[in-house]
Amino acid sequence: MLLNRNKLGSVRPPKRCRSEMDTSSASDIVLIHGNSHPDLANKVAERMGIKSGGCSVFHKTNRETMVEIGDSVRGKDIYIIQTGTKDANNNIMELLIMAYACRTSSARSIVGVIPYLPYSKQCKMRKRGCIVSKLLAKMLCTSGLTHIITMDLHQKEIQGFFDIPVDNLRASPFLLQYIQESIPDYRNSVIVARNPNSAKKATSYAERLRLGIAVIHGEQKEAESDEVDGRYSPPPVSNNRTRTISVSVGVPEHPPKVKPPLTIVGDVKGRIAIMVDDLIDDVQAFVDAAALLKENGAGKIYLLATHGLLSSDAPRLIEESPIDEVVVTNTIPHEIQKLQCHKIKTIDISILIAEAIRRIHNKESMSYLFRNVTLED
């Protein structure tokens, strides 16, 4: 074997392949998971060439969550894979207890891998409620997590709620690849934003694919912010007292919003319509949008999103709708929904999560995973 020597005659160590995790580094990493998505955790472990750590998460008869970590985690880097599902509250408690168990067992670092962050849609003040995603961020930081890996947050500003580093990965490269490789004649497509709030994401997809864009405007029902909640109503007047001064004197009246009927801004006649969004939960709005696209002469209709929660009777609604195909990633388990609806397709993103874990563990730059990706993706 030829050894590389420098000018002083000392031997330089041979270069190692960056794509491989060395033995000493791999021995310091422990990958554990809860009950939310064991299939994804096993795929990530397989791609990394390691086995998932021995962690048992179960519920007692009184529904309390119990966590038992079988292997030693002292001085090791722990990666906890736990995503959000329909059982979001249990998913969160499992993650919090697993993180705290690792913290009290003297783990060196604890990274939470949360492909879909629950409560991410509750990131704004609504009525007399609260910003739940900030509360969740504080709980995760207090439990002992030192880093968060997530994917396609509903709003990128959620990262500011955390006191620890957050890597918000993007699934758009996988979805763009699917459009180019699996949708016939995709050049005759138009990217559709289901509402004006999704216009930025749709614009980003359209610019990368060199396609046109259409935006659906209007609502069939009142928005949540327009519902009567009594916030602007005057206090009640008792029978034996009269109010001498109106509380609204000098304050301009707040005009109500008038939602127009659903209309399409853009041309979709004779073209393939591709709707893009970050989350598919209640699909009724997407079904209504697809029906409107069909009425305006659209050909095939595709629906692409990162997270496929597919709550309630979503499979039946999709099966009976004009939507030809629904494409989501496997950040959330949806095997049962796929059995109920043949239109649902899945893209595996375990390779992206595995590469993110490898780069963080080896202290490599994460910028490679964000190349050519804008904040609107």
UniProtKB/TrEMBL annotation:
Region (Disordered): 1-22, 222-242
Family matches, as CDD domains: PRTases_typeI
Molecular function terms, GO-annotated: ATP binding; magnesium ion binding; ribose phosphate diphosphokinase activity
Database matches in NCBIfam families: ribP_PPkin
Domain Ribose-phosphate pyrophosphokinase N-terminal: 29-144
Keyword 4Fe-4S found: no
One of the protein's GO biological processes: 5-phosphoribose 1-diphosphate biosynthetic process
Keyword Isomerase set for record: no
Similarity comment text for this entry: Belongs to the ribose-phosphate pyrophosphokinase family.
Coiled coil: none
Protein name listed in UniProt: Phosphoribosyl pyrophosphate synthase-associated protein 2
Keywords recorded for this protein, A-Z: Nucleotide biosynthesis
GO cellular component, one term: ribose phosphate diphosphokinase complex
Source organism: Ceratitis capitata
